[in-house]
Amino acid sequence: MATARIEVAIASIPEKKESLRRALEALRSHLSASSPSFSVPEWKDLDAHISSVEASIRLRFQALLAKEAAQPSSSPSDSKEKASNEWQPHANPEPEAVPRPQLTSLCINMDGKGLVSFIAQNRKDLGAIRSELNPALRSAPDPAKLVLDAMDGFFSSPPPPPKGDKKGDKDADALATRRTCINLLERIPVIGPEIGPSVRDQAKKLAAEWKGKVTDGGRENGLEAMGLLQLLVSYGLASEFKVDELLDLLILVSRRKQAVDLCKSLGLTENVPDLIERLNNKGRQLDAVKFVYAFNLVEKYPPVPLLKAYIKEIKKAAQDVRNKGNNSSEAENVATSKELGALRSVIKAVEEYKLESQYPREFLEKQVAKLEKRKEEKKRTVAAAAAASNSKIQKQQHPNKRPRPSATTSNAITGQTLPPGITKQPQFGLADPSPHMGLAGAYGFASSGSLYNNASISGFRSPPRSYLYSSESLAGTGGFYDRPVNYTGYPGTRVPPPYNSSLYP
């Protein structure tokens, strides 16, 4: 296949470049003795140009493979090659659109910081902006320098939140800025601008600065490492780093879909076995399987043992979480989630690489169901314990709080008893009719008239005589409460009623 020959040729570029370097050094030593006045170009200038061209060829070749994989195959050999490339996360080449005036203006004016800020602030419209970036960058006087100037915000603090934002998610802003910078770096090999020596030196200094920020403190931030690797690919700086350093950076980004393409663009195809061993030793066997299939190393590194080792490693890490957390509910939840995530990832890999015959997924699915059941039971136990704890706290805060008295309790307190045959029932749908009773009955005072002796007045039943106050205690009341009520006027007076007696007999 033509694509196979191209891939072999691309893989041989580093070896040919090294041969060219040796030939140039030999020529330099020969001319220095025979023709001192004859000048030979510096190797670093040639290396920068060759590396830039190499990166562009690699990316264009990946785009070609993506197009070929999208087309229906017409022969068994084509089908075999397509199947071997199905693992790759290639996307069809992005269509180019006429850029909006803001993008074009920022690129023409070489405003790198403004370009990053504009893209980050309009990330909701990122799909359209991505299709406009390549034409906009081509309009810049020096696209390579423009993108390099835009990298100043990669490690800097995010801009203040826009007005009206409550808090402003600084972490989200920082991530958006870094993704924008990486996206701009990926454009350089695609548009293939000329990279001058001064720009390359600037990129080299920036790479050295980023290298220290990525590795200091042992942080494993995949986005930072991917930005550094893409910077090396875009500006042809891979030769400035040792192979071990590049492999360590690749391990940090091994989970990302661009990891395999970065490995090829950096010219590390021959070092993939070493990379797989390192991933295996660091408990990243799932990522190692990805490189195994990408570089056709299945016979040397069988994938199923790697997947089983990965599950074993994750279970060990989950148990460490439980032990460090003293088997608390929080530690159990974190550990279970870690195991569930690993099992689901392995199930996905088994499906993707067609390994069901070697590693039945039913066994993995049973483990997932068991963990989910345990997680749900633990959740219910924690909820019940929390409810019991809240109830205990409330009792401690209000130790003397009495329950609401019932009707029987109220009668026992007041000393009132209902006569035989009379039950306390709500009148006219009212649960407690006492507020609507007569003047004497409402206040529990005694009356001499038989009208209040459990008789009904206008549908309301008077309560029985109250014994809270004795008759002696009411001796000084002047007999006001013993006077009969005259319903033709006001109580105890001869004042006529305010209404006409013929209308109200």
Automatic annotation (TrEMBL):
Compositional bias annotation for Basic and acidic residues: 163-172
Region annotation (Disordered) ranges: 69-100, 152-172, 374-419, 485-505
Protein keywords: Developmental protein, Differentiation, Flowering
Pfam family for this entry, one: Frigida
Record GO biological process: cell differentiation; flower development
Biased composition (Polar residues): 406-417
Family: Belongs to the Frigida family.
Database matches in PANTHER family: FRIGIDA-LIKE PROTEIN 3-RELATED, INACTIVE FRIGIDA-LIKE PROTEIN 2
Protein name (Swiss-Prot/TrEMBL): FRIGIDA-like protein
Native organism: Musa troglodytarum (fe'i banana)
